[in-house]
């Protein structure tokens, strides 16, 4: 255990205490929950690796993103949407939109080209006179008043 009290032992103790206080966990034993957490940790590691490889290897990106999407589907399993998205955000580091893009790529409803095209289209819809994310203006424009809501 590290000096700050974190580590495998303290995490297990915290999880056991949280499980005991959970009113809905009456049928969950520490044996099957520990194996589920280990399986979940392995899936998270595998998903992150495929996303990283997809980012680095553009010619094999489709295969890696498809694999990441399939593993995301497996990770989702019986989790609620909120639990699933929280794990994805905190443990994998991707947001809701990217998560569902990868799931769509995996099940064949979208391709990488579709995702790239929608990103391009979305970025072209920016408000004239507003800078890009990097602070640069694409063309000098006269600011227009925004419509009232």
Description:
The chain is built from six helices and no strands. The protein has 149 residues and is mostly helical. The protein has helices at 8-21, 30-56, 61-76, 81-92, 96-107, 112-124. Helix 2 (30-56) runs antiparallel to helix 3 (61-76) and helix 3 (61-76) crosses helix 5 (96-107). The model is unreliable at 1-14 and 18-26 (pLDDT under 50). It has a domain at 31-121. The longest helix has 27 residues, at 30-56. It is globular, with a radius of gyration of 21 Å. The protein is 63% helix and 0% strand.
Shape summary: globular
- Largest pleated sheet: none
Helix-residue proportion: 55-70%
The radius of gyration over CA amounts to 21 Å
Structural classification: mainly alpha
Mean pLDDT over the full residue set: 75
List keywords for this structure.
6 helices; mainly alpha; globular; disordered N terminus; 149 residues; single chain; 63% helix
